[in-house]
């Protein structure tokens, strides 16, 4: 692999979150397989987050492995943000800063 190839190497890791345990790795791939994982996720309405550094950390995990505790906060923030993007809010949530337009 040349240096140029390593800069453009595509990878994808899919996580599944059941709400009772830490998210687990359900799919991983590089190059064409990564493209297929992303395409399949989009087909099913799964939101995609692109972050090269996070991807590097997640590709070190094995299929079925839970994310390490060090990633709990960042993954929790991504899950929470994805809920907001989908218009989902906790039952007792109050938009006290009026930063999110929940009527759209």
From TrEMBL:
Pfam families, alphabetized: Bac_export_2
InterPro entries xref list: T3SS_substrate_exporter, T3SS_substrate_exporter_C
GO terms (BP aspect): protein secretion
Name under which the protein is recorded: Flagellar biosynthetic protein FlhB
Residue span of region Disordered: 1-20
GO terms under cellular component: plasma membrane
PANTHER family: FLAGELLAR BIOSYNTHETIC PROTEIN FLHB
Function text: Required for formation of the rod structure in the basal body of the flagellar apparatus. Together with FliI and FliH, may constitute the export apparatus of flagellin.
Gene3D superfamilies in UniProt: secretion proteins EscU
Keywords: Bacterial flagellum protein export, Cell projection, Cilium, Flagellum, Protein transport, Transport
Family the UniProt entry places it in: Belongs to the type III secretion exporter family.
């Amino acid at each position: 692999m040349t240096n140029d190839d390593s800069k453009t190497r595509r990878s994808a890791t899919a996580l599944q979150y059941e709400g009772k345990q830490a998210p687990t790795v359900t799919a991983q791939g590089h190059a064409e397989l990564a493209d297929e994982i992303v395409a399949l996720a989009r087909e099913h309405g799964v939101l995609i987050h692109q972050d090269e550094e996070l991807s590097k950390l997640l590709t070190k995990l094995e299929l079925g492995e839970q994310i390490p505790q060090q990633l709990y906060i960042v993954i929790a923030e991504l899950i929470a943000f994805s809920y907001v993007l989908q218009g989902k809010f906790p039952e007792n949530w109050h938009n006290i800063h009026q930063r999110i337009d929940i009527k759209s």
